[in-house]
């Protein structure tokens, strides 16, 4: 049974900061540094770290790495792996890498070989949407794999950069990156990215595996039909793209950067800059191609601003990550996002390193004992500790 806090994370976390902390907005400065320097009180840092350590050790004992499949590996396993990777980067303590390797191996060994020869982690409901009955398929999940592979490949890069870790885990790091390459190849060959506007978007494919026969439920010509399928909402497409940027960091292969850039071009086209320097809050989902319509003019999903602010946390995190990689977004975009957060009272953790007001709000609201704290505490502390190439964003 899922704990209450992990179940809440599946629905998507609420905003990090309560409305009472928003108050009258201050205006962001005109200049934004791509890699800003900031400090934190040592006593506060030590207190956060101690509480985070207790929280993380308790979460490790839950062992969701032994059971999660499909999209769930992204929501239940990835946050723990992300916290462990950043825990090492924030402290230099190799035991967090030990735990990360243990969890990663436990997840990987449960993969099954699918009809096209690729490994996957299928389950019913892996699509994460009931559009077109996509959740009725027994299938694996691009989103789940992208989310869980991101901290794994970033950790692999960190292992390779540390001689002591490389001597112990170098072969595993190489194997993790090889697996991630294979997973990109799998989804690329299956057609999980489609051209849209001036870019591309990741999609949920309209087929799965027949548990009785072990074969696909649809013929190849049906799987390739551009009238079938469903585009990821922005937050999911952004998480897939962040995995691709991590792949760029870990491998140096520009193909991953190019694919991420294709999505970020589309994401940026969905933003509308207003006269006051803020972005109008963007739609949670928009149709990207003919596959997103039941009939002309009748989209498969509602279009508008989502009431759950947690989804926008993910979007902003991705845009900041892209800017720090110099992919489509830039420091001016970060400045507009800061201004948007300050004017609207939204609380986007990824912007905390860039603005003193947002930093103060972040520090006031951070709960090192909570589900979000598993990721946010070590990420925030690692921002000050490391300027290594893989440490480009959280």
What does this structure look like?
- The protein has 394 residues and is mostly helical.
- The chain has one domain: Glycosyltransferase (Alpha/alpha barrel), CATH 1.50.10.
- The strands form five sheets. It has a three-stranded antiparallel β-sheet with strand order 5-6-7, with helices on one face.
- Strand 8 and strand 9 form a beta hairpin.
- Helix 3 packs antiparallel against helix 4 and helix 8 packs antiparallel against helix 9.
- The radius of gyration is 20 Å and the shape is globular.
- The N terminus and C terminus are likely disordered.
The CATH topology is what? Glycosyltransferase
Taking the alpha carbons of the first and last residues, their distance comes to 29 Å
Give the overall form: globular
Give the integer mean of the pLDDT values. Answer: 90
The CATH architecture? Alpha/alpha barrel
Question: Could you name the key traits of this structure?
Answer:
single chain; Glycosyltransferase; 7% strand; globular; 3-stranded antiparallel sheet; two-stranded antiparallel ribbon; disordered C terminus; 394 residues; mainly alpha
Task: Provide a quick synopsis of the model.
The protein has 394 residues and is mainly α. The chain is built from 13 helices and eleven strands.
What's the structural blueprint in terms of helices and strands?
Blueprint: H1 4-11, H2 42-60, H3 72-91, H4 95-108, E1 112-113, E2 119-120, E3 123-124, E4 138-139, H5 142-161, H6 163-190, E5 193-196, E6 199-204, H7 220-223, E7 230-231, H8 234-251, H9 254-269, E8 272-273, E9 279-280, E10 293-295, E11 298-299, H10 310-324, H11 331-344, H12 356-365, H13 373-385
Antiparallel strand pairs: 1-2, 3-4, 5-6, 6-7, 8-9, 10-11
Helix pairs in contact: 2-13, 3-4, 3-5, 3-13, 5-6, 5-8, 8-9, 8-10, 10-11
């Amino acid at each position: 049974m899922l704990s209450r806090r992990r179940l809440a994370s599946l629905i998507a976390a609420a905003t990090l900061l309560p409305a009472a902390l928003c108050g009258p907005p201050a205006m962001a400065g005109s200049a934004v540094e791509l890699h800003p320097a900031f400090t934190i009180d040592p006593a506060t840092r030590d207190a956060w770290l101690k509480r985070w350590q207790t929280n993380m050790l308790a979460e490790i004992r839950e062992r969701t790495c032994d059971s999660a499949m499909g999209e769930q590996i992204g929501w239940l396993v990835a946050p723990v792996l992300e916290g462990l990777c950043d825990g090492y980067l924030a402290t230099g303590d190799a035991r967090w890498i030990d735990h990360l390797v243990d969890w990663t191996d436990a997840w990987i060994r449960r993969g099954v070989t699918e009809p096209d020869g690729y490994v996957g982690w299928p389950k019913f409901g892996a699509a994460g949407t009931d559009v077109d009955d996509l959740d009725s398929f027994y299938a694996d999940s691009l989103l789940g794999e992208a989310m869980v592979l991101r901290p794994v490949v970033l950790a692999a890069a960190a292992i390779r950069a540390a001689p002591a870790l490389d001597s112990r885990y170098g072969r595993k790091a190489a194997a993790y990156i090889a697996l991630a390459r294979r997973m990109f190849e799998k989804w690329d060959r299956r057609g999980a990215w489609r051209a849209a506007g001036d870019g591309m978007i990741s999609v949920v494919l309209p087929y799965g595996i027949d548990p009785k026969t072990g074969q696909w439920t649809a013929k190849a010509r049906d799987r390739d039909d551009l009238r079938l399928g469903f585009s990821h909402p922005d937050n999911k497409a952004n998480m897939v793209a962040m995995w691709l940027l991590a792949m760029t960091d870990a491998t140096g292969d520009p193909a991953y950067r190019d694919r991420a850039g294709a999505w970020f071009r589309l994401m940026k086209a969905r933003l509308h800059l207003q006269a006051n320097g803020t972005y109008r809050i963007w739609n949670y989902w928009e149709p990207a191609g003919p596959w997103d319509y039941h009939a002309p003019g009748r989209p498969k999903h509602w279009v508008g601003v989502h009431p759950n602010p947690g989804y926008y946390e993910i979007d902003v995190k991705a845009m900041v990550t892209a800017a720090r990689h110099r992919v489509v977004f830039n420091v001016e975009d970060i400045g507009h996002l800061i201004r948007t957060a300050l004017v609207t009272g939204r609380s986007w953790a990824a912007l905390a390193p860039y603005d003193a007001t947002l930093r103060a709000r972040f520090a006031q609201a951070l709960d090192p004992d909570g589900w979000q704290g598993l990721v946010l505490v070590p990420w925030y502390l690692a921002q000050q500790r490391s300027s290594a190439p893989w440490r480009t964003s959280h």
